[in-house]
Amino acid sequence: MDSTDTELECDGSCEASKIIRDEDTDGKCKTIDVNLDSYGREDVPNLPKIRKNVKQSMVWDHFERLKGDPNDPRAKCDTIGKTIEKNLKDWGIERVMTLTVDNASSNDTAVAYLLKRFNKGLLFGGEFLHVRCCAHILNLIVTDAFKEHNDCIDRIRYAVRFIRSSPARFLKFKKCIELEKIACKSYVCLDVPTRWNSTYMMLEAAVKFEKAFDRLEDEDASYRHDMSPNKEDWTNARMLIRFLKVFYDVTLKISGSLYTTSNLVFHQITVVQNCIRLNAGSANALLVGMANNMKAKFEKYWGNNEKNNLLLYVAIVLDPRKKLRFVSFCLKIFFGPEVAESMGNVVEQCCRRLFHEYSTTRSGSRQGCSSTSTTSTQTVSGLDANIDFDSNENVGEDFVYDTIVEEFEDDSTTPFEQGSSEIDIYLLEANVRTEGDFDILQWWKMNSDRFEVLGQMARDILAIPVSTVASESAFSTGGRVVDSSRCSLAPKTVEALICTQNWLNSDPIHLQFQHELEEASKFEEGFRVVMENEKELEDLPDFDKLSITDY
């Protein structure tokens, strides 16, 4: 990805599409990844008089409204597809690689429409066009966990709202904290019921003050209510927190917008599956029940490997730390050796098909790639079945994932024979081992001379977004709604807010100009000495290194 710019096309009433364009350095757009999301405006049906006197903001005049029969779902789906088609043609874009959408039937129809219209400009006839939003699927899985424990969560939510409803109640609660000698600098926080991450953080904060809540029940008669949490509620909350932490960490990672995510999604799906597997074998009946419910939902969306977009497997192959061996390793753990061998062959053939396509039609002529390599194969073994998930107080994505990675990296190795083609050399080379953060784009930039065609593949495939929303919106269990305050903003205000957010969120640019200042100072001093006839130019120190053109 040499450069990326974002276009936003929004419907004033229901739909929005965000287009991410991937350009070459010459500015000519070759392939793009399309990210489709939906937004709506708040309705205020209970305030007709206020709505009657409020003029709709001009900001909606700057958005394209999708027109269609609201009573005909098919017409709405076709309208979405036609709008995307129109925008792509207006921008002169002829080649679309992927379209990332929420898991909804209306989006399936829109994708099918685009398959017919963009058949010639799609990779392998659109075989890999449809990418389902992973954050949306995770939300569906987590929602099932909340359904099972709504009463427990509601009682704790009531307790938190009770003490936050007035300063007097909060002060009384603080006294209970002091009496129970709870050493915690943070306090309980309210949640937003439609955002499960805020509910997770509310529960995480509240369980630390369980004893204070119990004392408050004795100290405050108004708190003694049928909705106050009992001992079982606190136990369930602790279990729920430890379970949700894995999903919380995974959702944050796959919905990031400042780094590549396509090479992470297979990792994170593996993390979720491993978490469910570990909990299903727990001695705790509550965890077993939650895990089984989530397992059914997981298998519905991610259980059939053949239905998943193969480019997400190719993305992990293009990660030099994992490659094809990691894919086979994880598949063998969760699906058995037969599925691992079968899917491993499918993924490898897909990689070779893509390599051939890029070699013949996308990369043009390229220099031969020569390299010697000492590489290894992995003897796959299962994870330790005796891992005690319940005994870990800080169970999270890192713990669950490390149980897989350690088995993979510590396995025995056997050298392969040297490969001949570029893709053979890459696949057979030893995996890159790193400590700390790893910049996959920087690695491909440094190795694109050795792997020219694979570098082109990595540029396109690593740019695929696996989530339709950024992390701040990924936890919403309800629809994304543009509230009335934002709807009423003037267009220039909206533009100013968007630009300001972009600037504030961007990484700082570190300028290293101390050396240049020192050189400029030496030059000025030398110039002064020569002009005042104190020394000849040839007598200046480092005269042979001095270049007037540098200044």
Share of residues in helices: 40-55%
Q: Output the helix-strand order.
A: EEEEHHEHEHHHHHHHHHHHEHEHHHEHHH
Give the C-alpha Rg: 29 Å
Shape: globular
Strand content: 5-15%
Q: Structural class of the secondary structure composition?
A: alpha/beta
Number of strands: 9
Cα end-to-end separation? 34 Å
Number of contiguous helices: 21
Q: Sheet bearing the most strands, described?
A: 5 strands, mixed
Structure, described:
With 551 residues, the protein is an alpha/beta fold. Among the domains are: 3-134 and 321-505, no CATH class; 514-550, no CATH class. The chain is built from 21 helices and nine strands. The strands form three sheets. It has a five-stranded mixed beta sheet. Helix 14 (337-362) crosses helix 18 (452-461). The longest helix has 26 residues, at 337-362. The radius of gyration is 29 Å and the shape is globular. The chain starts with a strand and ends in a 20-residue tail after the last helix.
Please render the helix and strand layout as text.
Blueprint: E1 3-10, E2 16-23, E3 29-37, E4 40-41, H1 48-53, H2 73-90, E5 96-101, H3 105-117, E6 130-132, H4 134-148, H5 150-164, H6 167-179, H7 196-206, H8 210-219, H9 231-254, H10 265-280, H11 285-302, H12 310-317, H13 323-335, H14 337-362, E7 376-378, H15 397-409, E8 413-415, H16 422-428, H17 440-447, H18 452-461, E9 481-482, H19 484-487, H20 491-505, H21 514-531
Parallel strand pairs: 3-5, 4-9, 5-6
Antiparallel strand pairs: 1-2, 2-3, 7-8
Helix pairs in contact: 2-3, 4-9, 4-11, 5-7, 5-9, 6-8, 7-9, 9-10, 10-11, 10-15, 12-13, 12-14, 13-14, 14-18, 17-18
Keywords: DNA-binding
Domain hAT-like transposase RNase-H fold: 255-358
Pfam family, one: hAT-like_RNase-H
